[in-house]
User: Which sequence fits this backbone?
């Protein structure tokens, strides 16, 4: 391997690591707030990327109709829950149902109308990207309402099993929504930079800049805003947060929505450079999961560092041993889990 090839591989590894870093941060966020190992996060990456491809083809993506159908199911679920809780219904009126109707019926209908209206208009890349995000991200609170909210007090093992079930459901839906063939979006950065004689692709620069900006925005959100501080409070002490009036269901819905927004933006970033199909989300999500494990599912900086290690390792192993690339990357979990197991046993021995 000569230095030029090594630098090119480092470019790819750093760009890929930036994507895994964002996904790892999203996974740590969801787990810290809800104790949910959110396995299906990779499907939101793929759904957004493939939705963008369909929009760019001047078609109405089927994910719009999935959003409408899921919203209707969530609204019916809220009606059933409202009828069963008669005491709360008598004291609180029907305001919760109006809010549910706005979130689960009105919002998807408005999004569908806008997407249908714009489908025959000349294509504008930023508008197409915004439409893809607006279609996919509202699925997140609906999935939380249907799959996770009824089990909000369950142990992480049960939530892990539910996440696997949601993952497989979304994979099956992806096959029906997008078909078995892979595709990629139109490129949005075809320029290049030359640094010290080394060519740096514009796509790589865009991914790195977007990743840094998103990390800064997340930091400011958690440090300076009331919803961000509420999520931090729930992550630190769920019962204490409930005692001061922070709703855990609302916090969980917000955490998963933010995580899926991050995943959707990752889908936009990688869609021009990688051919994706309905199965691609599994590997993408699992590699973000590996990075989150390296951070112990508690530390954002360690998760980000682990993500860049995963990205660089994947890039270089694809050159040296492409057939074993996935095996090597996923094997990183084993020593980390062993170290944490021994550390936890030693802590128990001390006590």
Assistant:
């Amino acid at each position: 391997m000569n230095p030029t090839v090594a630098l090119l591989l480092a470019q790819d590894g750093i760009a890929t690591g930036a994507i895994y870093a964002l996904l790892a941060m999203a996974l740590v966020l969801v787990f810290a707030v809800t104790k949910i190992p959110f396995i299906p996060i990779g499907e939101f990456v793929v759904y957004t990327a493939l939705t963008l491809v369909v929009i760019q083809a001047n078609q109405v993506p089927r994910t719009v109709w999935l959003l409408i159908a899921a919203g209707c199911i969530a609204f019916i679920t809220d009606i059933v829950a409202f009828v069963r809780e008669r005491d709360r219904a008598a004291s609180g009126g029907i305001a919760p149902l109006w809010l549910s109707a706005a979130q689960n019926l009105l919002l998807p209908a408005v999004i569908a109308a806008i997407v249908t209206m714009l489908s025959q208009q000349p294509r504008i890349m930023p508008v197409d990207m915004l439409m893809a995000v607006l279609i996919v991200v509202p699925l997140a609170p609906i999935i939380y309402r249907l799959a996770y909210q009824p089990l909000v007090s369950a142990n992480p093992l049960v939530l892990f099993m539910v996440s696997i079930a949601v993952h497989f459901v979304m994979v099956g839906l992806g096959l029906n929504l997008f078909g078995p063939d892979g595709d990629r979006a139109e490129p949005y950065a075809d320029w290049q930079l030359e640094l010290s004689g080394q060519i740096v692709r514009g796509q790589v620069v865009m991914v790195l800049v977007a990743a840094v900006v998103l990390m800064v925005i997340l930091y400011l959100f958690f440090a300076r805003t009331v919803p961000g501080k509420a999520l931090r409070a729930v992550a630190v002490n769920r019962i204490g947060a409930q005692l001061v009036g922070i709703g855990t269901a609302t916090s969980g819905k917000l955490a998963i929505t933010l995580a899926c927004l991050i995943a959707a933006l990752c889908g936009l970033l990688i869609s021009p450079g990688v051919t994706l199909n309905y199965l691609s989300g599994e590997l993408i999500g699992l590699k973000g999961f590996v990075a989150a494990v390296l951070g112990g599912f508690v530390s954002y900086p360690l998760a980000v560092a682990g993500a860049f290690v995963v990205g660089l390792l994947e890039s270089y192993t694809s050159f040296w041993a492409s057939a074993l690339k996935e095996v090597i990357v996923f094997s990183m979990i084993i020593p980390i889990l062993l170290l944490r197991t021994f550390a936890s046993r030693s802590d128990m021995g001390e006590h």
About this structure: Strands lie at 192-195, 198-201. The first strand starts at residue 192 and ends at 195.
